[in-house]
């Protein structure tokens, strides 16, 4: 059973490693921060990065601005402790948050990884209409209904049973009101081409061809069109929650794209926020 502190915080899946670059994982709509476990345990992500996973309480009703400011506060404290490269890795809902942080506080980070980001949510008419359904469904039915969404959330045939169970547990952990609220945030999310064009960092957009939830491949094309230092990777046959799939190795992808951190020491950075 997943347990939560009742405020936005980091989860530290490994002991701190201040000599390594910092990787901040922004989770999908579940907000648990627990679904990076497969990459950490199976592919030893912690050998390259000091990892923090953002955890958003299941009843949290923060706005985009509040989420962004909470993350900036947490990130600022990390930077004051240790000057080092900072990677943001945002998956789905977390991809939207990573873009928000990049626009508001670009000086706090160095590279961005976007995994099937939900920044394209409002491009899907059926998804926009369907996102209103949880508001009409009684809470007991809502939690059972999440099971029916699993094939849309991930390619279950490409996951081990434990990862499928973790995905279901994470989605069912979100309260009914919070689920309605986070869907509303996705409907409202907008980032304009002129904002994308001002992101100065290298960005890697990872998109799955079999994403049944979002037009992720098209969104990867859009992001790389407008973000000056963006590149994309297309994962054939992968679904939306691709980081849970048995054969998807994030470190291997980063290495192939020359996106791993250098070993040069980090220069002093300003903590001011735009």
From TrEMBL:
Q: Which Pfam families match?
A: Abhydrolase_1 (PF00561)
Keywords tagged on the record: Hydrolase
Coiled coil regions, renumbered to chain: none
Q: What is this protein called?
A: Alpha/beta fold hydrolase
Which species is listed as the source?
Planktothricoides raciborskii FACHB-1370
Keyword Hydrolase in annotation: yes
Q: Could you tell me which SUPFAM superfamilies the record lists for this protein? A: alpha/beta-Hydrolases (SSF53474)
Q: InterPro entries, alphabetically?
A: AB_hydrolase_1, AB_hydrolase_fold
Where is each AB hydrolase-1 domain found? 81-244
| GO molecular function per UniProt | hydrolase activity
Among PANTHER family, the record links this protein to: PHOSPHOLIPID_GLYCEROL ACYLTRANSFERASE DOMAIN-CONTAINING PROTEIN, TRANSMEMBRANE PROTEIN 68
